[in-house]
Design a protein that fits this description.
Layout (H helix, E strand, L loop, with lengths): L1 H16 L2 H40 L3 H15 L11 H25 L3 H5 L1 H36 L3 H7 L27 H5 L3
Helix pairs in contact: 2-3, 2-4, 2-6, 3-4
């Protein structure tokens, strides 16, 4: 019994000293950060039905834009990435592209709304705009935190001597989440839906 406890203690000290615990902690940090990214993108997707229906009530003939938003949301629904599938670089890129398409479609929808004063004056529409603005800012912040978490983890995996531990336990670097406009991840944007320029910041 004593020998088993001693062996366990030695193993724990050895793993701690070689960076195993740090790698596990940073991997969990990445998983947590990714969960928050998905959560904020889902929050945005949940706003789409009400937003589309509200716009449709005032600008029903803007079918192209409405269809683009609806299709973009459907596409996102078919791409569910958890912390394990987020390790698949191809799936991660598909997810990023789908979210960028959603952002662009929403921007076009909001630009179109500028042509309808009654729609802009609708209290429900203004509330949805405010929720979308807050969500876009939270998305940018969550995405930035995730990218930082992945960079920290990947650096640990590549650095000596923890790279030896990583190899021993088959721990590999993780693909990061990239967007077309890298400046969008540096700071959370301020979305101003009063102009087309501000709307494009929501992408």
């Amino acid at each position: 019994m004593k020998q088993s406890l001693l062996a366990a203690s030695v193993l724990a000290v050895t793993l701690s000293g070689c960076g195993y615990n740090t790698l596990q902690q940073e991997d969990e940090a990445v998983n947590g950060a990714w969960a928050e990214v998905v959560n904020q993108y889902q929050r945005r997707a949940d706003l789409v039905p009400n937003l589309v229906n509200t716009v449709k009530g005032y600008a029903g003939h803007e079918k192209d834009v409405l269809v683009q938003v609806t299709q973009a949301r459907a596409r996102i629904g078919s791409l569910q990435l958890d912390s394990s599938t987020a390790n698949d670089e191809k799936k991660l890129q598909e997810f990023a592209k789908a979210q960028q398409t959603m952002g662009s479609a929403l921007s076009r929808l909001l630009v179109v709304s500028e042509n309808y004063p009654q729609l802009k004056a609708d209290a429900g529409f203004r509330d949805l705009q405010a929720q979308l603005e807050g969500t876009e800012n939270r998305i940018a912040l969550a995405r930035k935190r995730y990218i930082t978490a992945v960079q920290t983890y990947n650096t640990e995996v590549r650095s000596f001597p923890t790279n030896l531990t990583a190899m021993a336990f088959s721990l590999k670097t993780r693909p990061n989440f990239t967007v077309e406009n890298e400046k969008a991840i540096s700071t959370a944007p301020t979305v101003n839906f009063g102009s087309s320029a501000g709307s494009s910041a929501a992408q």
